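User: Sequence in, structure out. Go.
Assistant: Echoing your sequence, followed by the structure tokens.
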Amino acid sequence: MTVLLEQADGVAKLTLNRPGTLNALTVPMLDQLVETLQALATDGKVRCVLLTGAGRGFCAGYDLSGTDVPEHMRDPLPEESAAHMMIHSQIPSLLRRMPKPTIAAIRGPAAGSGLLLAAACDLRLASTTARFKLAFASAGRCGDPGGSFLLTQLVGSGKARELYLLDEKFDADAALAMGLVNRVIADESLDAEAEAMACKLAQGPTAAFAAMKRNLNNAETSSFEETMALEATANAQLSKSHDGQEAARAFMEKRPPQFRGY
């Protein structure tokens, strides 16, 4: 299997599993990611999704060798390629919009499509070994659907243009400084810290996290007043939820809340 799925304690761990190619993406692999993420997005038992790569790399981008391309995709027309890309564009959309937190744990290379997979997640933890490069200019391409939006939101317009046009490599510390990743962690601690963060989020108020994600996504295109109205409605609804009422009880009883995710 080129995408492995493990589930425990509310966490779904997705591992890109082509370590011999630094987990370079193929069409069947992307098809599997779409199908798996669609299922996880609606699975009530899953309260956090952790995305990582097998071996010494996160994801080296799309596999340009063509060795794993289905026969019907060997020489597609531009419109056929675009249609397939739009199917695969569900992946960053699902990571960004599913009603539960998503985390990328990055070690080694994260390039091209792999970098954008990480950018679509809510949180990004990078090992000190992480190395980044957009690589689209090097491949004579402009980039995957959604990438220019995601990077502009994360690092700003000027930096996003620099990353796309100059196509230079950068390390984990540079990624942290520009806001692309949230934390840089010693390589030997990356897996444990990513899993601990995922478990913490899986034990949290999932419905509140879902509302936070909706509010933050809407804030990128809505006015201040529209954003406040959405936040007020969501907060009012959450105050009546199990977790909202449990948080109030736990505060009064001076104990940690026991969230159920609804």
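User: And one key feature?
Assistant: The beta strands are 3-8, 11-16, 48-53, 102-106, 109-111, 123-127, 131-133, 170-171, 183-185.
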